[in-house]
Design brief:
It contains twelve helices and eight strands. The protein is of the alpha/beta class and 291 residues long. The chain has a single domain, classed as Alpha-Beta Barrel (TIM Barrel). It has an eight-stranded parallel β-barrel, surrounded by six helices. The chain starts with a strand and ends with a helix.
């Protein structure tokens, strides 16, 4: 259903932390002009954990409205409360998002049965395509391939963003599920290997600053051009790593500010990138030809 380079879009904020809608619109146009295949609104990179529900919904509405059908908009609607996830997913559906991305419930540490029941409840409550999101490094909760396979028969669960960096999971999921469950990388550094192993693309932090390069890399990989894809990815590797010099989205928001795309606003408990990492990130952007 979705494939290629899908950007986990930052939420632009002014220096006082308020939402910068004009910058959000500029970023969306920048991505569409540079080949990004889908916008992910208010995911982890979009600071979903620090925006209240009304603002969360406002950002989704602005993204859908400004994109205007030019590329898909996938709304981040996960929560560690099933009822809240249903509420956010229902809003995204009413706002005409193309799909939703739902992170595994964080902090609660649910069992595999709890994960199954959580995702089943959301999918049965809201008739919109839904993508599971497994990121154990952030949530302290690892959704295992058997649980993903168990969820695959639910018609509107269409994919999984796998951010465990364990590429060996991909063949197990794709062989068991066929076309009913697409797998996307949630880890830029291993995204190419995941696509070559049968994945359909990446939900990317790096694409925020290098949309054309990530788009070209994904297109080459999906065509089976491993040599061409690796040539692009090798040049991006220092960027993949540099954008995690501190917790995401701290470095990528600093990088976009360095590029003149956004102001420096970020919300506590996140803080601006520490000065000792500035040159690391700046050098990574230079290595990739971004600045």
């Amino acid at each position: 259903m979705f494939k290629g380079s899908m950007v986990a879009l930052v939420t632009p904020m002014r220096d006082d932390g308020s939402l910068d809608v004009s910058a959000l619109h500029r970023l969306i146009d920048f991505h569409i002009e540079n080949g990004t295949d889908a916008i992910i609104a208010v995911g982890t990179t979009g600071e979903s954990a620090t925006v209240p529900v009304d603002e969360h919904c406002e950002i989704i509405r602005h993204c859908v409205g400004h994109v205007g059908g030019r590329i898909p908009v996938i709304a981040g609607t996960g929560a560690n409360s099933t009822s809240e996830a249903i509420e956010l997913t229902r809003f995204a559906h009413e706002a005409r998002a193309d799909a939703c991305l739902l992170v595994t419930p964080y902090y609660n540490k649910p069992t595999q049965e709890g994960l199954y029941q959580h995702y089943k409840a959301v999918a049965e409550s809201v008739a919109i395509p839904q993508i599971l999101y497994n990121v154990p490094g952030r949530t302290a909760c690892d959704m295992l391939p058997d649980t993903i396979i168990r969820l695959a028969p639910i018609p509107n669960i269409v994919g999984v963003k796998e951010a465990s960096a364990d590429v060996s999971r991909v063949p197990k999921i794709t062989q068991a599920c066929g076309d009913s469950m697409e797998v996307y990388s949630g880890d830029d550094a291993t995204a190419l290997d995941l696509i070559l192993a049968g994945g359909q693309g990446v939900i990317s932090v790096t694409a925020n600053v290098a949309p054309r390069q990530m788009s070209d890399m994904c297109k080459a990989a999906l065509k089976g051009d491993e040599v061409g894809a690796r040539a692009i990815n090798d040049r991006l590797m220092s960027t993949h790593k540099g954008l995690f010099a501190e917790s995401n989205p701290i470095p990528v928001k600093w990088a976009l500010q360095e590029m003149g795309m956004i102001e420096g606003g970020i919300r506590l408990p996140l803080t601006p990138l520490a000065s000792e990492h500035h040159e690391t990130v700046r050098a990574a952007l230079r290595d990739a030809g971004i600045i």
